[in-house]
Design goal:
Layout: H1 2-20, E1 45-49, E2 60-67, E3 70-77, E4 91-96, E5 102-105, E6 107-108, E7 116-122, E8 130-138, E9 151-158, E10 161-167, E11 173-179, E12 186-194, E13 199-207, E14 212-216, E15 229-236, E16 244-251, E17 256-261, E18 263-264
Antiparallel strand pairs: 1-9, 2-8, 3-7, 3-9, 4-5, 4-8, 6-7, 10-15, 10-18, 11-14, 11-16, 12-13, 12-15, 16-17
Amino acid sequence: MATKVAAFLAALALGAAAARADVWDRGTDNDNDTGSDNEIVHGISQVHDLGAQAGVADEDWYPLRLAYGRSFEIRVEGMTGDVTSGSNAPTVDLLASDGTTLVKEAEDVTAFGRARSLRFGSTSNGAVGYTSYFVRVANAACGTSCTGEDEYRIRAYDTTLTLPRFNNTNGQVTVLILQNPSSRPIVYWAGVWTSGGVYLGSHAALVAPYATSVTNLSTVNAGALNNQSGSLVILNDGPYQGLTGKGVAVEPATGFTFDTALTGAPQ
């Protein structure tokens, strides 16, 4: 009987150790620096720990290739008590491709000051390509005292919105309606393309907290979109699903309207 109890307790110990292990820290090809292979893409949701190793505080690195004309939110949440002290710990930083230059620091998601959010985008100006970054999670409150039980969850969301169709031709005019249901201002940048994929320019503006922005697309950029039709790709610095809206094609001669909802990346 004693042997069975000992075997059972040993199995529990092994199971607990396996559950706590951060698989990205195992082996020599780990996520502790710019050599990390743990690429951030839309929809990623992972649990990591910041357990110190050999007296060295842990850092988790994530490469990100952000396509031009897209925006993203990286959210770090679900932290266990020793990871955060409420004083911006841990740090969540967006770094340039050199792994050194700080591009942006994360903001608090709420006034409670625990969950952190990085929100950023990359305008295209008609070019096709991407910008390389790293996201680094480091400087946990527990420092070199952190163990495998000091965990957090990281999530990533593509926050880009698209309007599949606008039409400022044949007597129609399209109005872009954007709503900001949050308590923070949101800046957006709309790249405009013809149905054949030719870049027509861009339009940028700010939507105040809880406000609705209504923009006649035929009047932006000194009327550059008159007699044009196509689509919009809208990036923004708001949270995922933090900006909603639609395009309304109005036909003044008949009074008809044609609504096209903005779409975003699904969860």
